[in-house]
Amino acid sequence: MFRQITDTVFASPQIDKDAVAQAKTMGIARIINNRPEGESDDQTPGSEIEAAARDAGIDYVAIPVTHAGFSQAQVDAMHEALESAQGPVLAYCRSGTRSTLLWALARAKAGDNPAAIASKAAAAGYDVTPVRQLIDMLAAGK
């Protein structure tokens, strides 16, 4: 269920409370919810994931991303959430794609090589092509 992007970053489709327990056994230190509330009737509410995470001793951050796209504030928040994590991170959304794209943008902002970012995402089964131009721009601006 969890796809490994780097040694310390995993992406996932929508999780539930059982997945939080699995994340705990994997040593996940922070869960990042990139899914807006109410996106679909079958999603586990963020408040339930947050409560399960906190009960398991896992930090929880919500950075919701709609299908409208990514803002600089979201990229900055993701960068901060990744950089300040005290261990491995699990980011999730509906399919894991928005989480991976936001991770990619945050890493580009940090100055990572765009080709390396794309390669790591592809190895986890995600395609960053929809934001590749933005990745290049963010990486060049560093």
TrEMBL record:
Gene3D superfamilies in the record, alphabetically?
Protein tyrosine phosphatase superfamily
Output the Gene Ontology terms for molecular function: hydrolase activity
InterPro entries for the chain = BLH_phosphatase-like, Prot-tyrosine_phosphatase-like
Instruction: Please list the residue ranges annotated as the Beta-lactamase hydrolase-like protein phosphatase-like domain.
Output: 2-109
Record-linked Pfam families: BLH_phosphatase
Q: What is this protein called?
A: Beta-lactamase hydrolase-like protein phosphatase-like domain-containing protein
Organism for this UniProt entry: Novosphingobium malaysiense
